[in-house]
Design goal:
4 strands, 61 residues, mainly beta, N-terminal domain of TfIIb, single chain
């Protein structure tokens, strides 16, 4: 039986910490098997709706 292990290295590059909005962005570091970034954000709207957004841009490193 064989196994494969990969290390994915990311760094948080931005944080949103506001009263009605929270989120983060992280990006890959050099040496990672893929390149790119991801964002995640939660918005709490005035009409009490809550929305969640994720955006990912990745490609092989």
């Amino acid at each position: 039986m064989s196994s494969l292990a990969l290390a994915f290295c990311d760094r948080v590059t931005d944080v949103i910490d506001e009263p009605r909005r929270w989120g983060f962005t992280y990006a890959t570091l050099p040496g990672c098997p893929e390149r790119g970034a991801e964002d995640g954000r939660i918005d709490w709207h005035a009409d009490h709706r809550v929305t969640f957004m994720v955006r990912a841009v990745r490609q092989p490193g």
